[in-house]
Amino acid sequence: MPGSRPVLDADERNAVAPPLAERLTAGSLTDEELLRATEGTPDERLLPFANVLKIGGQSMIDRGRKAVFPILEEVVAALPHHKLIIASGAGTRARHAYSLGVDLGLPTGVLTTLGTGVALQNAHILGYLLAKHGIPVILPNQFGQLPLYLAERSAVIFPGMPPYTFWQHNPEVGLIPPHRTDTGTYLVAEVFGARSLIYVKDEDGLFTDDPKRNPRAAFIPRIGARALLQRGLNDLVVERAVLEFMLRARHVRRIQIVNGLIPGNLTRALAGEHVGTIIDADEGETSA
Predict the structure, then answer these.
(1) Mean of the per-residue pLDDT values for the chain?
(2) What is the pTM of this model?
(3) Topology at the third CATH level for domain 46-280
(4) Domain map of the chain by residue range?
(5) 275 near 262, Cβ under 8 Å?
(6) Least confident range of 127-136, 231-240, 268-277
(7) Which residue has the higher pLDDT, 254 or 22?
């Protein structure tokens, strides 16, 4: 996988581990040189066969049956062939909660708590619709059981909002939580070293502007994360925090955005086809 760290053999690990262990127990964890030394250890991809999907809240779930049922049919059809970790977005109801919270002067951490509740509601909606297939909804404290659920049922569902609640990072601008469901989904994929990360939205991918408002917006089929950040686009199809995390990721250095309203797009993306937009951490801009 591009960007992953080199794997050390047993002799190399034995040579590195003792002094590093001593330094970690005796040294300061704010010592940049010591922290850099920990990068020499081998990476373990915990679930390298798993595919992480995010089903958008406003873009998919809020559209109801006409959008949700077809995408869930593709999910069910994929179960014999793929292991799926499915995240739910929050969507319009979270935006209403943010609007009310901002009007009442609530801080970002409280807004995060409100948005997390909506993402959980959407996870349960997906869970009930997939209940007959035995696919469970799991919460953060159940992630230790995730491998078992994948082995038994080939899929799990979780609310995409990272469980920061009151511990949410303050944004550089405004009050809206900067790490929402796109970011929470990405962090899960990165931690488990997933095979792929696919965002299922209602747009064909990334554009130079919001195509719903600007019909002249140009489609970008592929681009590097750094090049995209440098463009400074006012509207992005994924949260900026995802792109920033990609630049220092150890495993998931590529994401894909597909239009879930077009039948077959998710199936093609799971098969490895270039559908929609691909954003890489390791490549510069390759398409306009």
Answers:
(1) 91
(2) 0.90
(3) Carbamate kinase (3.40.1160)
(4) 1-43, 46-280
(5) no
(6) 231-240
(7) 254
Q: Which of 20-34, 135-149, 189-203, 222-236 has the lowest mean pLDDT?
A: 20-34
Residues in Cβ contact with 107 at an 8 Å cutoff, skipping those fewer than 6 apart: 175
- State the sign of the Cα–Cα–Cα–Cα dihedral 230, 248, 251, 90: negative
CA dist 180 to 108, 109, 160, 162, 225, Å?
12, 12, 7, 7, 18
Cα(253)–Cα(38) distance, integer angstroms: 20
Q: Quick check: 238 and 268 in contact, CB under 8 A? A: no
Backbone φ and ψ for 167, nearest 5 degrees, come out as: -95, 15
How far is the C-alpha of 115 from the C-alpha of 88, rounded, in Å? 12
Tens digits of per-residue pLDDT, 12-58?
Answer: 554 544 478 788 888 788 888 888 888 887 789 999 999 999 999 99
Using CA atoms, how far apart are residues 267 and 139, in angstroms rounded to an integer?
26
Q: Which residues have a Cβ under 8 Å from the Cβ of 194 and sit 6 or more positions away? A: 47, 48, 50, 51, 52, 85, 188, 251, 252
Angle between helices 92-103 and 108-129 (to 10 degrees): 160
Helices (H), 79-199: 92-103, 108-129, 146-153, 181-192
